[in-house]
Specification:
Largest sheet: 6 strands, mixed
Mean pLDDT: 96
């Protein structure tokens, strides 16, 4: 099936005169997670991971993905004829470099310019020009192959009350216009869905697990245009937008409107976050800079932070009930990776204010957990036994915010090696959670605190240590994160500001054996200011027990024990009031001092 689709694509490429065709994992808004309509790379390759680029030439097809998905991609590409390029590994060229090397005089690389970012497209076009080749982003060939493609979503948007948002739309737009003035920009083009949802205090359901809606925005000194399918607007939403001076335009009209911008007018946009098709039609002078809203929404206001603590207590109750049930029922009744995930989701749905999951739950038993972003299927759905460990990475979307938590749960006997790795991951997570640092540090400065205990064993994990989290938005959000080196496309190396929320999730992944990850969300706070500067620290937002059954206590220092005990004391205080008597007694045992 995959080979037939690749062959059909090659036939269309020959018709159009393309030597190669690029299919990224993206939508018209360059979202991390895409709706079903946009899953072209999955349809054409069979690879289901959330990140990857498929490049098809007249002779070869290759899929690029990062370290989270190496194992999964190898399995899913088997027999497809598609070569796996392990992005980030030594000697592996990036897709754009590969294309530059493969193309020659007169060759053309095709793509849908609406699903690649402008910076990537412009850089590739310039690189190809040196070889006498070109980039054509005007046609989507997959439309002719994927004949039963799902429709674009039509769900209604809803207004996020200020008791959750903490700031009005008009104030947010005012802040944005002030920042535009600092840049000397008369116009700002905004296409990223989470930025738009944040700016307008609207939410939707166009992308699974991410409460956003498909729209574009053009904001000037005296106009505010929102390009959206009118069918998505309720009468209340229409009135709300009108009252706030927002003019609603048809969704696809953005591509025509950008051609009317005064060529002498300066337009602010982020070339990494606006698609190539829009910028290709833009006659105006461009100031390339990060969307101001990206930083605005990363720094949570006091109302949002207060709400986030409420959301995480609810989420912690659900996760704690799940762990209690799992430990008391494994081996007594049939539980699988999927049924365990379903049970956890049911506990979340019992919580007031719950809207949806924040991403598809990762429920991975034993060796499946070595795949960082494993997704259980009917074919792989393992039955849990009273041995080994289950890694569960999950989260929820609540009106009070977005959650993301990982716990690795011991179900029975484990090896000394696993216990050593579990303890190292615990120490790593605690080190970072308890960091004290001077203002001006970014995740690049602090990442070593988490990796240290794991690097001490000559091990590493092929991903960042943590990522920013939105407020009832994307579970992955820039510009903050923890990573030991800069990865430009990740946009997660900003200075850590008070109010930023970042995950802390080191891990150990041993292919064919086990995977361990322990993850808490942290909110950045201001500490003492003295002659050395402004000190900062983290406060945990996540409240759920860390499995004492996996710990080798002999590996813990006195400071490690103090930190774990303090955290578990907090967990018990926050969560126990919402449990049954039996559950509370169990939690008391699993948060007892060691």
């Amino acid at each position: 099936m995959i080979q037939e689709r690749i062959q059909k694509l090659r036939e269309l490429m020959e018709r159009e005169g393309y030597k190669a065709y690029v299919i990224p994992t993206s939508d018209f808004h360059l979202s991390e997670y895409t709706g079903d309509y946009f899953k072209e790379r999955k349809y054409m390759s069979g690879f289901t991971g959330s990140a990857g680029t498929l490049v098809v030439t007249d002779k070869e097809a290759g899929l690029w993905t990062d370290g989270r998905y190496y194992i999964q991609a190898e399995a899913q590409l088997e027999g497809s004829g598609i070569v796996l390029f392990k992005q980030g590994m030594k000697g592996v060229p990036l897709p754009e470099k590969y294309l530059e090397e493969q193309m020659g005089e007169g060759d053309v690389v095709g793509c849908d310019g609406r699903v690649i970012d402008a910076k990537w497209g412009m850089d590739l076009k310039a690189a190809l020009a040196k070889k006498g080749a070109d980039l054509n982003g005007t046609k989507n060939l997959i439309d002719e192959i994927w004949t039963d493609r799902p429709a674009l979503p039509k769900d209604k948007v809803y207004i996020l009350d200020e008791k959750y948002a903490g700031e009005s739309m008009s104030d947010k737009v005012g802040r944005l216009r002030a920042k535009m003035a600092e840049y000397g920009a008369k116009m700002h083009i905004l296409t990223t869905l989470d930025d738009i949802a944040w700016l307008y205090n609207l939410r939707g359901s166009d992308v699974a697990n991410t409460p956003v809606f498909m729209a574009y925005a053009m904001i000037s000194e005296d106009s505010n245009l929102l390009f959206i399918d009118m069918d998505k607007l309720t009468p209340e939403a229409e009135a709300y937008l009108s009252e706030n001076g927002v003019q609603v335009m048809p969704y696809g009209a953005i591509y025509e409107w950008v051609t009317w911008i005064d060529p002498e007018q300066t337009t602010l946009l982020d070339l990494n976050r606006v698609n190539y098709a829009i910028v290709s039609e833009l006659p105006a002078k461009v100031i390339h800079a990060p969307n101001p809203t990206t930083m605005f929404k990363a720094v949570k206001n006091d109302v949002e932070i207060e709400n986030l603590f409420r959301a995480h207590v609810k989420d912690g109750v659900a996760v704690t009930k799940f762990i209690y049930w799992l430990k008391n029922n494994v081996g007594k009744t049939k539980i699988t990776e999927i049924s365990a995930s379903d049970y956890l989701e049911a506990r979340r749905r019992e919580q007031e204010g719950f809207i949806d999951l924040s991403f598809t739950t990762i429920s991975a038993y034993k060796e499946h957990a070595a795949m960082m972003h494993y997704s259980a299927t009917e074919e792989t759905d393992a039955v849990l036994e009273p041995e080994g460990m289950l890694l569960v990475d999950s989260g929820g979307q609540y009106f009070e915010g977005t959650t993301d938590i990982t716990r690795t749960i011991v179900l029975g006997p484990v090896s000394d090696e696993i216990r050593t790795h579990f303890t190292a991951v615990l120490r790593s997570m605690l080190n970072l959670m308890n960091a004290r640092f001077l203002y001006g540090c970014s995740g690049l400065n602090l990442d070593i605190l988490a990796r240290g205990p794991i690097w001490d064993m000559d091990l590493d994990y092929q991903c960042g240590t943590g990522h920013g989290v939105g407020y009832l938005l994307s579970v992955h959000e820039g510009p903050n994160g923890f990573r030991w080196r800069i990865v430009p496309e990740r946009n997660d190396s900003a200075v850590l500001e008070a109010g930023m929320v970042t995950t802390d999730e080191p891990g150990v992944y041993i292919e064919g054996s086990h995977g361990i990850r322990t993850e808490n969300e942290l909110v950045c706070r201001q500490g003492t200011a003295n002659e050395y500067g402004q000190f900062m620290y983290f406060e945990p937002l996540t409240f759920a027990p860390i499995d004492l059954d996996g710990i080798d206590v002999s590996m813990l220092t006195a400071l490690d024990k103090k930190r774990l005990n303090a955290y578990h004391k907090l967990v018990y205080e926050k969560i126990s009031p919402y449990l049954t008597e039996e559950e509370a007694q169990w939690l008391k045992k699993y948060t007892a001092e060691i």
